[in-house]
Amino acid sequence: MRILFVGDVMGEPGQEMLEQYLPLVKHKYRPQVTIVNGENATHGRGINERVYKKILKSGADIITMGNHTWDNREIHDFIDDAKKLIRPANFSAHKVPGKGYAIININQIKLAVLNLQGRVFMNPSDDPFAVAEKIITELQEKTDVIFVDFHAETTSEKEAFAWYFAGKVSAVLGTHTHVQTNDARILPGGTAFLSDVGFTGPYNGILGMKRENVIERFLNQMPTRFEVDETGPQTFSACLVDVNDSNGQAKRIETLQINPDHPWMD
Amino acid sequence: MRILFVGDVMGEPGQEMLEQYLPLVKHKYRPQVTIVNGENATHGRGINERVYKKILKSGADIITMGNHTWDNREIHDFIDDAKKLIRPANFSAHKVPGKGYAIININQIKLAVLNLQGRVFMNPSDDPFAVAEKIITELQEKTDVIFVDFHAETTSEKEAFAWYFAGKVSAVLGTHTHVQTNDARILPGGTAFLSDVGFTGPYNGILGMKRENVIERFLNQMPTRFEVDETGPQTFSACLVDVNDSNGQAKRIETLQINPDHPWMD
Amino acid sequence: MRILFVGDVMGEPGQEMLEQYLPLVKHKYRPQVTIVNGENATHGRGINERVYKKILKSGADIITMGNHTWDNREIHDFIDDAKKLIRPANFSAHKVPGKGYAIININQIKLAVLNLQGRVFMNPSDDPFAVAEKIITELQEKTDVIFVDFHAETTSEKEAFAWYFAGKVSAVLGTHTHVQTNDARILPGGTAFLSDVGFTGPYNGILGMKRENVIERFLNQMPTRFEVDETGPQTFSACLVDVNDSNGQAKRIETLQINPDHPWMD
Amino acid sequence: MRILFVGDVMGEPGQEMLEQYLPLVKHKYRPQVTIVNGENATHGRGINERVYKKILKSGADIITMGNHTWDNREIHDFIDDAKKLIRPANFSAHKVPGKGYAIININQIKLAVLNLQGRVFMNPSDDPFAVAEKIITELQEKTDVIFVDFHAETTSEKEAFAWYFAGKVSAVLGTHTHVQTNDARILPGGTAFLSDVGFTGPYNGILGMKRENVIERFLNQMPTRFEVDETGPQTFSACLVDVNDSNGQAKRIETLQINPDHPWMD
Ligand SMILES: [Fe+2]
Ligand SMILES: [Fe+2]
Ligand SMILES: [Fe+2]
Ligand SMILES: [Fe+2]
Ligand SMILES: [Fe+2]
Ligand SMILES: [Fe+2]
Ligand SMILES: [Fe+2]
Ligand SMILES: [Fe+2]
């Protein structure tokens, strides 16, 4: 099967990019399933039910999250019933709502999607290696096709994670830095890897936030309210992975960007 | 002029990649000047005089550094006389050897190369924005062509830095994460930008270090000695920037990788 | 002269402790000057003009700040005119309002009060050692009595700072951890030192915040709004330093606490 | 029973202080059991078998550790057989040697000693709250007297931990900062608490390390080798806790220091 993964959708601009380009990208590349990271979907911080439904309507099958999972309090209103939303599986086990993985059927094939968060330079969480090992072992009894969104800051943790699970999962695609990396490859054993898919939203902001605010904070270290940059051009960052359904091994990985420097071509 | 910038050269494998490919790359792309980040050149940690000279001999004109500058103590033996070596300019002013920028003449044109280090998730240093502003203002009286190696961890600090100095320097190219990003672009005012150039060294290690050691530390959080992975294939990561000599504005930026997934083609 | 220094005043409960006990403490110990850290004075985050004036009325001569300086936006309304308020002197020089030190006259003797912030495990700031060295050198031309509130997280940075400036200033008293340390001493050269003075506010909260909220965040790592604990008993944390006016050397340092475990005795 | 807890013993000077004062302290205060944190006992970094035995011979019954547990590689030679050594229980479960708690008999009463490490501003580890909850629940079936050495950096994590387990354990005493705090108290339910016991070793170093080296690093941010300060006076930092054997509730907590500012008095 072909999996399309879209990186962190950022606010209204990101939602609009999804609405506009997801149909075109699907029409051109024909993925069987579309996964979207939605941790920044509502005003750049978390996600509420309206936007959750909007992204599904735009064509997502599963929405993954990250360190911004709880930023929008409205998530508590719907996360228990949101079958298509997963958040990092290694969040604390102490009464934390939501779930860390989902299994969906794609033409008789089961696809497991697992979301995890790194620990280096991030808030404390349970050990992503240990938690993943446990869940992946369980999932392997149900399917060979396992897709991981590893939401992490450093390249070292992302590479270590991918190499450790190489041959055990179909893909480890990173998110969180909002910048697409140029290291897409198939690791031994058939695991597609990309350090970071990049994000989907304002192209001339800083990680999607208004430049002035972010720069001002770097200059004077005083608090400024970061807001999604609602003006200017947008970017769409994604990755396509082709998986051999019979054994779960990835055969091909390709990155995708749509923005003024990478204009869309049908 | 055309500038070639090669990302963090890692140990013997990285030195060998330079030796082998720098001549070929130069022959094919014809850069007028070659800048190499050498912070990991000697056994992955710092640089000594032998390797400094070897990299120059391989074809580098200027060597930049980063957070690993002082890791190899032999640097103190030659840094004061090393005209072609610069280290982050925003290191403390307190009796720190070395210099943060260099000016070289390329066919009658002065090229200033400036090295800086970020502060987010890195050891404390002087403010890179303030230090850069001061130095760039001085350099602008001497030349329009200013190249910056901004050695930093986070994409936010790199983007903020680049946008803040957009139109004031010819290029802001990032280093440190050892993973090439896919965001090369020309910012308004003619500033070439790339979050990270990537590194040059072992392709199947983790950031160039032996996988087993790094993975082990992630699994059990116990200290392991990281060593450069001396086996297996290598990668060469670089970036080419074309600058308009008359005004210092970048016209073109292109990334380059040589490794099993991106084989060299003459 | 005798200097009384009161640690981080926390919200309404802290203000009330000041109002109630500052007169009693002054009456008993007869300090010539009272310095109060007010970075948490308004609802635990920053300070506004009303509370600034209230603390002065309660008996403070100078108010120092820390990493929470800008948390309450109302500070911008009065900081430019607030002669008795100082904030860390090593905040960025880039258009940051306020000042980092103040000089006041105490019975014909000039007392300089300097506020600085550490860098380890704190937001980036200018180098506190370099900034302090510059300012202290200037201040020494005006007075021998220099008092430093060094607002920092780690004991190592606090001790290093104090030992480096030992013999150059009358006192280095730490703040920020909200827990009084038991290491008050006079360093060689006559510099009084205490890693942390502790805080003034709710005694049964966590650093003065409601326990339930803070514990909940440690248990599940989910965001909770921290609020000043407005119930239960209070604590008053302070330090007294006796300085020889003729040479600025500290002769004596003593900590002070008032709370259910250290009841006030006249 | 009366428990004596001695904070981080630092190198030769720390060992000597133990040898000299432990007998005197025991003679004066008559504790039934002595617990010593030994994470810095061998040259400031970890512990080897010779020093382990020496500290036991000086009078320790149990030795606890912290983030420096693995610094001295010789620990691997004896940790599996070291019945009186425990290391933080929340270290990764992945093939990590050693154990996190021990139970000893003191005059027919079982005393459980548990070692844990914090996560804020420290290397990643398993959740100390969750791990402690599980172990303490198990231990409570065997004894009411549970002593915890919580090795952590921040006062917030220490206070949150102590309040969360208040009434469930006899004592939560902190270590790691090497500076004794002045907040000893009995929390509701009979849990003795002290944020940090302080350390045992060189009194005029910085956290026990030679001042020059540590200060130099703060001044220029360049690597220096930290070494235990072997000259000058020493300090001995400890805490005494009286526990009601019948219900495990602490009745009294008192700190102890021996150094030039707190001379020993028989
Ligand atoms: Fe994101
Ligand atoms: Fe994120
Ligand atoms: Fe590097
Ligand atoms: Fe680096
Ligand atoms: Fe505070
Ligand atoms: Fe603070
Ligand atoms: Fe220690
Ligand atoms: Fe420690």
Automatic annotation (TrEMBL), chains A, B, C, D:
Residues annotated as binding Fe cation 1: D8, E39, N40, H178
Catalytic site: H68
Superkingdom, taxonomy of origin: Bacteria
GO molecular-function term, one example from the UniProt record: 2',3'-cyclic-nucleotide 3'-phosphodiesterase activity
Chain positions recorded as Fe cation 2 binding sites: E39, N67, H151, H176
Alphabetical list of InterPro entries matching this protein: Metallo-depent_PP-like (IPR029052), YmdB-like (IPR005235)
Residues passing through the membrane, by range: none
A Pfam family the protein falls into: YmdB
Cofactor: Fe(3+)
Keywords (A to Z) from UniProt: Hydrolase, Iron, Metal-binding
Gene3D superfamilies on file: 3.60.21.10
Family: Belongs to the YmdB-like family.
Protein name: TIGR00282 family metallophosphoesterase
Species this chain originates from: Ligilactobacillus ubinensis
